[in-house]
Design brief:
Number of helices: 4
Shape: elongated
Largest sheet: 6 strands, antiparallel, barrel
Oligomer: single chain
Strand order of the largest sheet: 1-2-5-4-3-6
Number of strands: 12
Radius of gyration: 18 Å
Length: 173
């Protein structure tokens, strides 16, 4: 049985495409293309289920068309519409060790303020829609991502220690 802590969310399935079982996949992370992943994990009725990919092709920078094994009709593909899509953390961790760290992989990490040692909160999402990438914390706080501010990323404890400029935290309060 696949547990939630063994995976991380990379997107959501959209509408069907054609009559042969293809479905649109709106992704936040293209790790499935960068790592040799044969399957994606879908959440169906609260249960994480692996679905093996027969083929996929990119429609845009954020959408792919996916054909899963044994999903051969539009009706079968329609049953998957709206499913959250996940990827195994273990495979993504191997990619991170090779220097291919994914922003989606750090969702859920806790941000620690280096000077005070206090927790600023957990990352709910990463906004990389502009050149100014932001960590969006669960409480609504936005933290700009600058390499020089990141002191440590601890994958085991799921913490990122940052030395933020004085006054930046106060802007969010």
């Amino acid at each position: 049985m696949i547990r939630k802590e063994e995976v991380y969310r990379i997107g959501r399935l959209g509408k069907t495409h054609g009559v042969n079982g293809e479905i649109t996949f709106q992704f936040d992370d293209d790790i499935f293309d960068r790592v040799e992943g044969e399957y994606l994990i879908l959440e169906i009725d609260g249960i994480l289920v692996p679905f093996f990919m027969e083929e996929y092709r990119f429609k845009s920078d954020e959408v792919a068309l996916v054909k899963f094994e044994d999903i051969n009709t539009q009706n079968r593909a329609a049953e998957l519409t709206g499913c959250e899509v996940f990827f195994p953390r273990e495979a993504a961790d191997e990619a991170a060790e090779d220097g291919d760290l994914s922003f989606a992989l750090i969702v859920g990490f806790e941000i620690i303020d280096a000077p005070s040692g206090r927790s600023l909160g957990r990352i709910e999402s990463v906004d990389d829609s502009t050149d100014n990438i932001l960590f969006c914390l669960e409480d609504g706080m936005l933290i700009p991502v600058a390499e020089e501010w990141i002191q440590n990323i601890d994958n085991n404890s799921k913490q990122i220690t940052m030395a933020l400029p004085e006054g930046l935290i106060d802007l969010n309060e």
